[in-house]
Amino acid sequence: MEGRMQWFIALCISVISVQVSGGERLRVQWDRVDTSFPDDFDTVQLREVGSFHWEKKSFLVSNPSRHVTGYVAYVDDPSRFHFALPSEGCGHRVKTSLTAKQNGCTYATNAGFFDMNTGQCMGNLVINKNEIQLSSDLERVTFGLLGNQVLIGYIQVSSLKRLPPFDELISGAGWLVRESKSIVNVSRVTEHIEDGFVTEKAPRTGLGVLASGQLVVLQVDGIEDEKKGVDLYEFAECFTSLNATQAMNLDGGGSSVSWSASDGIIDYPTCSDTPVKCERAVTSIVCIK
Predict the structure, then answer these.
(1) What does DSSP assign to residue 223?
(2) Count of CB atoms situated within 10 Å of the CB of 92
């Protein structure tokens, strides 16, 4: 792993020289600090592919076999991909659509986990090279963007600080896909994720990289009260059906929402986990400029 770290540092320097809530019910604990876990991450080269677009897509999932509705945003240029916060910063909850407008986003979804009571961001967060917070070492999957390189996996804060500053960085809960295969059985143990969080049918939001080198944002609709949506295994299936080589899970449940500057809210958000359509106030968002 030391060799991989040295290789990535060299790669990052090379890149720079030419240019890194949880829902009411869908909860995941963030208090398990582990300073002994080894760095274990992959790096992926992104490519500029086509033009930015999003689509509403039906996914076939397996447990039980059925179709679910998702919204896929295909990022044509990595430089357009950002995370963003409300103007007040962490500790303030604002609807994704409003934060998106404040930050000039073309397309947006919810992003990182947060404290439902205080609005405090959870995990690591870097926006436009600005370190919002690097949390205590916590074995949770991390997504980092540096130029046209993505780092995804497990990395300690001490290791992060040895690397050049990331353009964007965020913590998730659940490394879904690695080398084109679902690894939920592994990541649920590695990240100490509660069984209920893994197996509940719920709305989900996540990030992935396709075999083509294109970055994608995927959000799947659901209603927790009616056990509609996908569990993490099925969410991984959605990503692999897109031919994703890597994917990770972000905040979901009633926080999940997809928004377009030209169309407004394009999915069916359920902020109270019931069939009532409503948009939840969150903290960080995915913002495609």
Answers:
(1) B
(2) 16
